[in-house]
Amino acid sequence: MVIVSDPLANVDKEKTDILMYCTGGIRCDVYSAILRQRGFQNLYTLKGGVSHYLEKEGPMEWIGNLFVFDSRLSLPPSTYKTEAVSETSGAHQVSEGSTFARCYICNSQLHELRHRNCANLDCNLLFLCCTQCLKDLRGCCCLDCTSAPRLRPVLPGHQRYKKWYIYRDMELQTNSTA
């Protein structure tokens, strides 16, 4: 059995303000109820979540994309307010000298903030990387993963991986015709 320490164990439940925000507000509703049951009193949420905020306010000053919990991984802010499409087609360009995000592999500054999963299905690490490391490591997060037995192909652009069986079935078809 793994025992995980409670990060909120020593937090003053009466005096600590907690601001919660999530994509659509649903997870915040669930977790704020749990925190209230645990005695926390000063809980605040972003009504309707970040997606609602983006619909109402637009992506002004928004850096990066909005993380979502499906195969898309992240969406540009323009998804929520279509008239606010930027000239970079939804990929916010980070200003020169900014240390907002760095490549997980080489630590270079990223100019595009886009989440990726490791091409090694058994790793599947979610990470940010530069285009050079993406190319050099064929979509993997490290050199070890490049020699893994269950590798997905490197996907061009911002495509997302499909379920493993699709790649497995394509490989089986290729091997049976060879």
UniProtKB/TrEMBL annotation:
Pfam families: Rhodanese_C. Residues 16-62 form the Rhodanese domain. SUPFAM superfamilies: Rhodanese/Cell cycle control phosphatase (SSF52821). Coiled coil: none annotated. This is Rhodanese-like domain-containing protein 8, chloroplastic.
